[in-house]
Write the structure tokens for this entry.
Amino acid sequence: MQIRLRTPVEHPSTDQPARHAHDAVSNCTPGALRQFAVWVMAVSLIIAQAATGAPRPVVKNSGADEVAEIGIPKARAVSLPKTDSASKSSKKHTPVPPKAKPVQDTAKARPPGKIRLGDEQWFGAASSIDPVTEIAVALTIQLRKTAITAESAQGLSVLIIGDSLSLCGFGQRLDGRFRKSPQFKSIYTYMTCGTVPLSWLKVGGYPNAKTCCGFFTIESDEDGGSPIILEDTYGNKRGTKPKPHQVPKIEDLLEHAKPDILIVQTGTNFFDLFTDGKSISAERHERALKSQVVPFMREVLKTHSSLRKIYWIGSPTSGRVTADIQDFVFERSCKFTAPVATVIDSRTLITYPFTGLQRDHEHFGGADMNRWADRVFERVMGDLTFRPLPAVITAQVPVEEKSAVPSPAADDKSISVKAKLAFKSPPLRVEKIPYGESLVAYVYDVVQVLKGDYAEQQILVMHPAHIRRQAQSLSKYKIGSTYELRVKEVDGTPWATTKSSDQSEHPELLHFIQVADERKLPSRGK
């Protein structure tokens, strides 16, 4: 027996879903009618969400508490973060509710409500409560996925930039995931070792920045051919080391790629600001992080003409600095990229210690690196599915207020002191220096301030200990000897994020570097 329904009355806000519903059930059996009821439920779910704005449950986002992938027959599933068991069940297109597990990661789970990555969290919570709702969720994802595909019928362009973790496999894996997805027409990926956000700018202290420890680019061919790849990394050719390469500039990359989406993987080199790996000087370290992130965001927003979305990918758990430091860096990254970027906390995506973890307790490769890239891709796709892309980014980073009280750091002025060397930290071993350069902390007792203002009784000066992996002679500095030092704050120089040895146990002291040593950094290109 056939069941025919009268054509629903069109309504400005619901006529399109109703028309689809009518097509689906105009000739249906009782079994098909049940399918129709599920479609109606999915559409009602969307309408009710928009109309009521009711509070949604928040699912804590941790590596061990993840939403299973929802299998949808005859449609590519939106891959949400999943466990191994969920991955197996998804192949049979059987929805699996998330299972609560204790957090195993050494880092703190992200507090709920700080960062919302998309409505997929709410749908994941709803589907875990009611199996009928779970079916509606699957259909809702399919509907919204179709809308995204239709919106980007011409294909979206993606620009990815990253540091040494990208060189360890993250960048290539993420590039491949986007490249295989039909929603994207062109992918441009640039990975350079030892970089921080300012390294990618023409303005500021890094206009001629070079990377000496690895360079890898993957660019779409404008004629539709295979990607154009340039790789110069350790292990690429036996017995060879990477050559120096100019760090590409974001101004040029935005003009060339004209991306809809910018993905920035960064943050690992920020940890070098915390020289002892455990102490935080809130004011000084916040100022240093702000000086790196805010100028980058401003230049991106000033230069772009096509950007519709920015994703800022924070670092996975690091074993060389405390969890408090990692929280500090992540929270400031959120603060200084707001309200423009969506920040993803990678510590919630994979569990430390990682497979293939290197001796620095930070770099890694293998299965966990692939898992990290896959889950970042899934987060981005989930966000794009549930949050329509704007026509173009119009928000701006707030203008920085200038300090009412001038300071040497703000005006980039040096100070000169006569000081007696009181303590010398031992330099790092060469194998602990991934980027070729390192600093070592010496503490001096201030005898006299010759120029500028300095009120402390001691001054901490960072001396270059390695340049291009070659040890620098520091034998002229002897305990008890007095020296005249012309110095400036390290945080205002390209040396700021260089790996350092500091055993002085004076976190309250500002870090200075001699003006003569500032220009010795090879990445300055001078």
Remarks:
- Confidence is low (pLDDT under 50) at residues 1-28, 50-129, 403-411.
- The chain has twelve helices and 16 strands.
- The first strand starts at residue 156 and ends at 162.
- The two ends are 84 Å apart (CA to CA).
